[in-house]
Write a structure and sequence with these properties.
Structural class: alpha/beta
CATH architecture of the largest domain: 3-Layer(aba) Sandwich
Number of domains: 2
Strand order of the largest sheet: 5-4-1-6-7
CATH superfamily of the largest domain: HAD superfamily/HAD-like
CATH topology of the largest domain: Rossmann fold
Order of helices and strands: EEHHEHEHEHEHEH
Length: 185
């Protein structure tokens, strides 16, 4: 359940939601280093790895160890900041765990990403993004937020959001695909 009071100042704005990794921030180097440290081929798609090995990878990737390798997606950040300056409400939704909040806030500051709210995955939440993020959006819609646009790189999440929320313009980003990480489509 979301802390609803964080959205009070956004109730009269048109809202644009953004995923962070592989949408606003290029995490391809962190991805490859996490695979290497996990003893895996740094060019493999994570979905082709057996679950036991995949868990080893996620423990490394979802730590702050290699976050310094992340790079800003300047083109998307420029578009987001323009929308922020035009008065849209900007909410960042990430599958990153809350344990990375301090590092994520520092990264957002360093990359000059403007936003009104940041929602991170709660402790012990292991839901796939396509369940976790859809539930968050449903909660935001139910409290009356006027979400007009959503930016996401995960194809499965994109398809579910398009289906469940036809009024929201969904923009699929292909940074992960271009960098040959995470997704197959």
């Amino acid at each position: 359940m979301l802390p609803l009071d964080i959205f009070n100042h956004l109730k009269n704005k048109k809202i644009i939601l953004y995923d962070i990794d592989n949408t606003l921030i290029d995490v391809s180097e962190r991805y490859r280093m996490s695979l290497r440290e996990s003893g895996l081929d740094p060019n493999i798609n994570i979905r082709k790895i057996p679950p036991s090995e995949r868990n080893r990878f996620w423990r490394v990737f979802l730590s702050n160890k290699y976050m310094h390798l992340d790079k800003p997606n300047q083109q998307e950040i420029k578009k987001l900041n323009k929308k922020y300056d035009e008065g849209y409400g900007i909410i960042l939704i990430t599958g990153r765990p809350g344990t990375l909040r301090k590092d994520t806030l520092e990264q957002l500051r360093r990359f000059a990403i403007k936003y009104h709210a940041l929602i991170m995955r709660p402790k012990n939440n292991r839901e796939p993004d396509k369940i976790y993020k859809v539930r968050l959006i449903r909660e935001m819609v139910n409290i009356g937020l006027n979400i007009i646009e959503y930016h996401e790189d995960d194809p499965g999440t994109v398809e579910i959001i398009k289906e469940e929320f036809p009024r929201i313009k969904v923009i699929k980003h292909d940074l992960a695909k271009r960098k040959f990480i995470f997704h197959d489509d």
